[in-house]
Amino acid sequence: MGVPIEGEPIQIHSYKHNGHIHRIWDETTILKGTQNLIIGGNDRTIVTESDGRTWVTREPAICYFHSQQWFNVIGMLREDGIHYYCNLSSPFIYDGEALKYIDYDLDIKIFPDMTFNLLDEDEYERHRQEMKYPEVIDHILKTQVNQLIQWIRQRKGPFAPDFVDLWYERYLTYRS
């Protein structure tokens, strides 16, 4: 597994457990890239859905991926504060083409006051049965939901005060 170069744009590819593409973010600028951690920034990037539909993100975002965590975090800078969207997912890989991960349906949406909602439990259950998620994956994901909630409550990692703002300042230095 390679390491993306800081300042370089990459794509992000999200897959489903069955190997089908779920979503592609066209361009994210690498702000930090190591074997274990990738932090990226994007703003008004094109997103392509599995059915070919496209849309454009509305606000700047800082993306956090860790090779040891079964989730990734997107911090979106909005007028009323930072909103977070967390995807329960496989740890990332970077193959030189794109950062890639498997999306496992469960999401946590976090508001600027750090209140949060667990989303898509029905979708997770349906896909768990349809795609036959192994029990070990089911266990890992449920454990990681609890860990993610602890991180949110403790303001740890990407939820730390100023984390998104500091990385957004770095992102701005790469914009032309």
Question: How is the secondary structure organized here?
Answer:
Blueprint: E1 9-15, E2 21-33, E3 37-42, E4 46-49, E5 54-56, E6 61-66, E7 71-78, E8 81-89, E9 93-94, E10 98-110, E11 116-119, H1 121-130, H2 135-154, H3 163-174
Parallel strand pairs: 1-10
Antiparallel strand pairs: 1-2, 2-3, 2-4, 3-6, 4-5, 6-7, 7-8, 8-10, 9-10, 10-11
Query: Which structural class fits the helix and strand makeup?
Result: alpha+beta
Outline? globular
CATH superfamily: FomD-like
Total helices: the number is: 3
Measured on Cα atoms, how large is the radius of gyration? 15 Å
Strand residue content: 35-45%
Largest pleated sheet:
7 strands, mixed, barrel
What strand order characterises the main sheet?
1-2-3-6-7-8-10
Written account of the structure:
- The protein is built from three helices and eleven strands.
- It is globular, with a radius of gyration of 15 Å.
- The chain has one domain: FomD-like (FomD barrel-like fold, Beta Barrel).
- The chain is an alpha+beta fold and 176 residues long.
- Mg(2+) 1 binds at residues 87, 103, 107.
- Keywords: Hydrolase, Magnesium, Metal-binding.
Task: Describe the structure using short key phrases.
176 residues, alpha+beta, 43% strand, hydrolase, FomD barrel-like fold, seven-stranded mixed β-barrel, globular
Describe the structure concisely for a colleague.
The protein is of the alpha+beta class and 176 residues long. 24% of the residues lie in helices and 43% in strands.
